[in-house]
Amino acid sequence: MLFSKKQRARIHDLADLFKHLSDPHRLQLLLLLADNELSVGGLAKQLNVTLSAVSHQLRQ
Q1: Nearest-CA neighbor of 31 among 16, 41, 46?
Q2: Does residue 4 form part of some domain?
């Protein structure tokens, strides 16, 4: 066995993280939130998308 059970779990967690970061809309949200405290409405306005679209990305 190349990796332990704990290492395989960590690899799986990292793969999930990279999957989420690979979505351009979600990455834009994260970058905005890294610099500012914004409401869902503020994020939607900044990105010119609907409240529903922002909420959907934040749930993921």
Answers
A1: 46
A2: no
Burial 27-59 (b: 16+ CB within 10 A, else e): eebeeeeeeeeeeeeebbeeeebeeebbeebee
Count of structural domains within the chain: 1
Flag whether 8 is in a domain.
Answer: no
- pTM, full prediction: 0.70
Fill in the amino acid letter for 46: Q
Mean pLDDT of 34-44: 95
Question: Is 50 domain-assigned?
Answer: yes
Distance CA 58, CA 35 (A): 17
